[in-house]
Structure to design on (129 residues):
């Protein structure tokens, strides 16, 4: 697995990342989305949720899951300067019922995607089960 993170949202105390496997591509030849990570930074440590889509989770053996999560958090938590303690929940959902709800204009979404592509930024792809 060749992991790439793309920050989707950042506030003064939290971040959300899309997780991609650069060794795999979707039908549009974009890196395959394998999950997401939400982190919340506090004075006591980091709290968060890691979602790995069911297929990606099955490819990651249980003994490697802990190492994967520890490496991921070490890279993100240490630079933030918060205590090295963390509590992170791990889920491996099936995407059959996955939906995204928003009130954004469809044309705005298309323009933003086109702008991201022209600026050389990674584009988040929607994964369907």
């Amino acid at each position: 697995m060749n992991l790439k993170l793309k920050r989707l949202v950042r506030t003064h105390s939290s971040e959300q990342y899309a997780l991609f496997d650069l060794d795999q591509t979707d039908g549009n030849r974009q890196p395959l989305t394998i999950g997401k990570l939400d982190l919340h930074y506090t004075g006591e440590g980091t709290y968060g949720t890691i979602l790995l889509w069911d297929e990606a989770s099955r490819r990651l053996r249980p003994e490697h899951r802990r190492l994967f999560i520890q490496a991921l958090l070490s890279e993100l938590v240490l630079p933030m300067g918060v205590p090295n303690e963390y509590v992170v929940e791990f889920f491996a959902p099936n995407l059959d019922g996955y939906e995204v709800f928003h009130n954004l204009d469809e044309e705005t979404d298309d323009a933003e995607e086109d702008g991201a592509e022209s600026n050389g930024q990674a584009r988040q792809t929607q994964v369907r089960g």
Remarks:
- Residues 73 and 98 are 25 Å apart (CA to CA).
- The chain has one domain: 3-118.
